[in-house]
Design a protein that fits this description.
Low-confidence stretches: 1-9
Distance between the termini: 21 Å
Structural class: mainly alpha
Shape: globular
Largest sheet: none
Radius of gyration: 21 Å
CATH architecture of the largest domain: Up-down Bundle
CATH superfamily of the largest domain: MFS general substrate transporter like domains
Order of helices and strands: HHHHHHHHHHHHHHH
Mean pLDDT: 88
CATH topology of the largest domain: Growth Hormone, Chain: A
Number of helices: 15
Strand content: under 5%
Number of strands: 0
């Protein structure tokens, strides 16, 4: 699958060849993280709009990401994953330019908000193209046998960048003003495009291109497992602060940090298990651990137990995406795997999109613990679905 040019770098260690590509994911999500932390206060405090419009500005990116997953996957399959990644980096850079415009128009709130919404749309398209393009580009460099490793490292780059980007965005805005977020975004993406241009492309796989709805149908069962298993993460990330406050506990931020550390730590230390034991087995264990963590979190009698539940949830959630993703993309030929990855990723977008309203409805009476129990039951349902898929397909394919 590698081109002659890329084979020249094949003497590099495997992990380094992967990191050379997922570094672009890190830089793109650094831009996303910087914006995420400072946009709501800018819309609310500087432009004078309410919480609803501040939320709309944030969610616009997610809608654009969801709607452009198919484009990102098809571009990776037909024009090559490097092309998809470069389009994504350029779109993220365009978002930065528009963000500069929104900052300069702050005295015209309606105009500033309109430009900002365009910036968020561009960033959403950029996110989907970078995420899919870099994973497929990385796989092209190291081979299909290392798919799980590439997906795992791409996830580490994603969540690591979001964790770094948020405080960096707050610090930059406090020191230099909101406009510097746009300037920093453009600078980072120009650097990314320069580095990406120097990285060799990989060969586009020849073969029949399946219609997107056929690809979607093949990966849908795995996507459903991913969606059900992602609700726990969405509930924890969205409501853990309110849950702690309702119980009179301190340390919600520390709990989120521990969740993130467990997530990244498991991917670094146990990512190899997917290739060794197969995606189905790892997904089953991961979903059951996540279920246990959510039950502990929901039944916690004090903050120490809740911290343990969050840690178990992070450990369980860590490998769900790569383990189910490996077996999902194997349901299609190599010439359609970019589209399969894009279709598979749609399910986590949808799951995280509905978690907020669903969790809010469940907790409408001010009781947050039942949300975690419902999320645990969804993880258990995902484990049952994975077991059925394993019994049906596990003996006919790797994983």
């Amino acid at each position: 699958m590698n081109t002659q040019a890329d084979m020249a770098g094949s003497g590099l260690p495997l992990t380094l060849r992967i990191v050379q590509i997922v570094a672009f994911t890190f830089l793109a999500y650094l831009v996303i993280g910087m914006q995420l932390a400072v946009l709501p206060p800018f819309v609310h405090n500087d432009l004078g709009f309410g919480a609803v419009l501040a939320g709309l500005v944030i969610s616009t990116q997610y809608v654009a990401t969801l709607l452009s997953r198919g484009f990102a996957g098809r571009t990776s399959d037909t024009a090559g994953p490097k092309r998809a990644a470069v389009i994504g980096l350029a779109a993220c850079g365009g978002s930065g330019l528009l963000m500069i415009g929104a900052a300069l128009l702050r005295d015209l709130p309606a105009a500033s908000l309109g430009v900002m919404l365009l910036a968020r749309l561009a960033l959403g398209v950029g996110e989907s193209c970078v995420a899919t393009g870099c994973i497929m580009w990385g796989i092209g460099r190291v081979g299909n046998a290392h798919t799980a490793k590439v997906i795992s490292w791409n996830g580490i780059a994603t969540y690591g960048a979001l964790a770094v980007g948020a405080p960096v965005g707050v610090l930059l805005t406090a020191t230099f003003g909101f406009v510097v977020i746009g300037i920093a975004s453009v600078a980072l993406m120009l650097l990314s495009l320069l580095l990406a241009w120097r990285r060799p492309a990989v060969r586009v796989e020849a073969g029949e291109r399946l219609p997107l709805h056929h690809v979607f149908k093949r990966v849908a069962p795995y996507g459903m497992g991913l969606a059900l298993g992602s609700v726990g993460f969405g509930v924890l990330a969205t409501f853990i602060t309110l849950y702690y406050a309702s119980q009179g506990w301190a340390g919600a931020a520390l709990t989120l940090s521990l969740f993130g550390l467990c997530f990244v730590g498991v991917r670094l230390v146990f990512g190899w298990t997917i290739g060794h034991f197969g995606g189905y087995r790892v997904a089953l264990v991961s979903l059951l651990v996540e279920c246990l963590g959510l039950l502990v979190l929901g039944s916690a009698s004090h903050a120490g137990v809740a911290v343990l539940g969050a840690a178990l949830t992070g450990i369980g959630f860590s490998l769900i995406f790569p383990s189910l993703g490996v077996v999902a993309v194997e349901r299609v030929s190599a010439s359609n795997r970019g589209s399969a990855l894009g279709a598979y990723s749609v399910f986590i977008d949808v799951a995280l999109g509905i978690t907020g309203p669903l969790g809010g409805w469940i907790a409408s009476g001010g009781r947050y613990a039942p949300m975690f129990v419902v999320a645990a039951l969804m993880s258990l349902a995902a484990a049952a679905l994975t077991g059925v898929l394993y019994a049906t397909y596990g003996n006919t394919m790797r994983g």
